[in-house]
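Worked Example 4.2. Consider the chain below.
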Amino acid sequence: MKIYTSRYSNQKGIIESGLVPVRITLGKPKFELSYDYDELRMLAPYGLFGIDDKNEFTRKYREYLNQHGIKKIRKALHEISQKHGGKGLVLLCYEDVHKSGEWCHRRLFADWWKDKTGEDIEELPPPYRQESMFDRQ
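Applying the procedure from the previous section yields the following structure tokens:
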């Protein structure tokens, strides 16, 4: 099962990917989405809201993930995938990590997962937009 991360507003990319969208945030999006999603609350950063220091947030989020452990998290991810015919997953939150200085817990989870399993979780790119000759002016 392949796992990616993205933000809720990458709607076209998420739909085109064919992956199962999975909410990993504390709150639901307050804007309309063009897709349905499943959710995995154990990856939401409970108790960490308001911590702006990335190092402190990272340390506490990793402690939180360690409490759940790889086996429990992998089982939960696998169950969501199996519920949708074995499809890959895309874990969702809000931040645009392509902007300089932006970070979020979905990428911190991806780093933690890589450290624990050796498996990469890539950020889902936005959908390809073909440049027209008029865009070059």
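The longest strand covers residues 3-7. The radius of gyration is 16 Å. Compare this with Example 4.1 before moving on.
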